[in-house]
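Hey team,

Filing this mostly as a record. A colleague (T.K.) asked me to run one chain through the structure pipeline before their review meeting, and I want the input and output archived in the tracker in case anyone asks later how it was produced. No errors, nothing strange. Just documentation.

Input sequence:
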Amino acid sequence: MHGIALKYFLEVAQAGSLSAASERLHVAVSAISRQIAKLEEEAGAPLFERAARGMVLSQAGKLLLAHARRTMLEAESVLQEIAAAKGMARNEIRVAAVEGVARIFVPSVMARFHQERPNIRFDLFVGSPAEVSRRVAEGGAELGMTFIAERVSGVSVRYSRRAPVHAVMASNHPLAGRRSVSLQDLSHYPLALTGPGTTTRQLFEMGCALESVQLDPVLTCNDSSPLHGFVFGSDAIMLSGYISVAWSLRRDELVAVPISNAELQSRTLQIQVMPGRVLPPKAEAFIELLSRELDQALAAGPAMRP
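Output structure:
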């Protein structure tokens, strides 16, 4: 299958119509249509279903889409390696991450990696768990780092470790000395939570429902930074993964206490890549460093004890 045909196919799949793909590529609709027809003849099956609102991928088209993405990305990697041999490479690693790890942890590992390889550049996208996984699956990032509450399709997992949600509070809080706290314990104090799109909020609501506990947050925010200010110097409690607050625990005199709820203990932190994609060596090296740093950071966190 020819590269130009796959390029046109990818654009039509993303744009949803021949006319939209034509505008993006600055190529005549007829030329794109011919290349799609050639691919369909070679595949022996229609790649799109023509609908009133555009073109929708058929089952065969969905299979080809995954192949086309990998092929184009691997071709791009080869061209970058050739450029690197001539001293002209961009040497960029594209990373997608959720806000909890993108604020401090990921950039700090990037800085360490850059010290060892000063020619490396990074592009960091910060989004929700669904956005991170989608960006990886579609080839917009070589790797993604996200918290997962349930299995995600369309990605391969290169690293996975349990990353439960903790109750974070001031070091002089009445609950700070506990080995663990229950959801019922939290009901006596003001609660600060991230928004509905986060795994922390989803698992919290599931845990409350299963335990028949009614807890209404005093503060809800789509960014975790304001939650730190709300908790600091008060009797308020925020919910967070240890890796997301490890940098501020000592500095802000906060503590993280495990929560004795199965749902909040079930979350994992993953590094995701596109299935079947051959990553460039620099991306593989960065994943290796991230994995080592995650192991060290998570091992230092408080664990549930009887």
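Quick notes for T.K.: The chain has a mean pLDDT of 87. The longest strand covers residues 156-162.
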